TrEMBL record:
Gene source species: Amycolatopsis deserti
Record's keyword terms, sorted: Membrane, Transmembrane, Transmembrane helix
Top-level taxon in the UniProt lineage: Bacteria
Family matches, as InterPro entries: GSP17M-like_dom
Membrane-spanning segments: 78-101, 107-131
Region spans: Disordered: 1-26
Biased composition (Polar residues): 1-13
Protein name: General stress protein 17M-like domain-containing protein
Pfam families assigned to the protein according to its UniProt record, in alphabetical order: YflT (PF11181)
Residue ranges constituting the General stress protein 17M-like domain according to the UniProt record: 30-101
Length: 178
């Protein structure tokens, strides 16, 4: 089960009242929005007006996987990316080795060895990975799961009040924050 949390939530603990198994959402629709940002704004407005937001669920409908192509891949680009990524990891390992090396003086040899080793390993692994694709995927991309619309559902006991509040929000100018 995937649990999405905020930076201020309890981390890995199961939120009280949430089902442990994937379960379809329940409630009555009180709003429908074209973007997730608009649905969040609606729920934030409900919270600002002391509405019982624990009865609210945002549901993405008509899910799509969108893959945005970032650019063409070439051997040069693949090797450069592998070298840079390996360098960062090598610097990290070299820094840790230098920190825990015995002796009163700081030595830069472990950092340099880590950097060079990281670059070499990064190059090798990137080359093997790219060669194994045999030209079937010569582009870089980023994937994102998006919905065609976002419905805000509310449990029946508070749905009418929620619908009334969201109707007031809809009548306000979109740039208004109060």
């Amino acid at each position: 089960m995937m649990t999405v949390t905020s930076p201020f939530s309890s981390g890995g603990r199961q939120a009280q009242g949430l089902p442990r198994l994937p379960t379809p959402p329940t409630g009555w629709p009180i709003g429908s929005y074209a973007t997730y940002q608009e649905a969040q704004r609606a729920v934030d407005y409900l919270a600002d007006n002391q509405f019982a937001v624990e009865d609210v669920t945002i549901v993405g409908v008509d899910l799509m996987l969108v893959e945005r192509v970032l650019g063409r891949l070439s051997w040069g680009r693949v090797l450069m990316t592998g070298a840079i990524s390996g360098a960062w990891f090598g610097l990290f390992v070299g820094f840790l080795l230098a920190m825990f090396a015995s002796g009163a003086t700081v030595t830069y040899q472990p950092i340099l060895v880590g950097l060079v080793s990281g670059v070499l390993f990064g190059l090798v692994f990137a080359a093997i990975s790219y060669a194994s694709s045999r030209g079937r995927r010569d582009f870089a991309s980023a994937s994102q799961l998006v919905a065609g619309r976002y419905d805000v559902l509310c449990q029946p006991r508070n749905a009418e009040q929620g619908r009334d509040l969201l109707a007031k929000l809809a009548m306000r100018p979109s740039g208004s924050t109060d």
